[in-house]
Design brief:
Layout: H1 10-14, E1 39-41, E2 44-49, H2 54-65, E3 70-75, H3 77-80, H4 86-89
Length: 99
């Protein structure tokens, strides 16, 4: 987890498009900022970053665990506003059934 929790700002909370089923975002509410929502890709790992002092630490830990992969950090604040992160937004699409 980031050392400093990540909260919605007033601008971010008011900038979310509201449609049926949307969970309201409230200024001051904690986001789902977590390093666990990283993504394995061919030969690499994409790791969420939050401008926090733990950003570099998590990259180094993943490099130690996976020395055969390139570990890249990406600022993902815009993604967490929607409630997920890089792993969530890149989920596979099931292949359609052939009838």
């Amino acid at each position: 987890m980031p050392k400093v929790p990540v909260y919605f700002t007033e601008e971010e909370a008011s900038g979310i498009d509201i449609v049926d089923g949307t969970i309201p975002r409230i200024a001051g509410e904690m986001t789902a900022a977590s390093y666990l929502n990283y993504l394995y890709v061919n030969g690499g790992i994409i790791v969420p970053q939050f401008g926090d002092e733990n950003d570099a630490k998590v990259i180094e830990e993943l490099k130690a665990i996976h020395p055969d992969r390139q570990v890249v950090g990406v600022l993902t604040r815009e993604i967490i506003l929607g409630g997920g992160n890089v792993h969530c937004i890149t989920q596979q699409q099931p292949k359609g059934r052939v009838k």
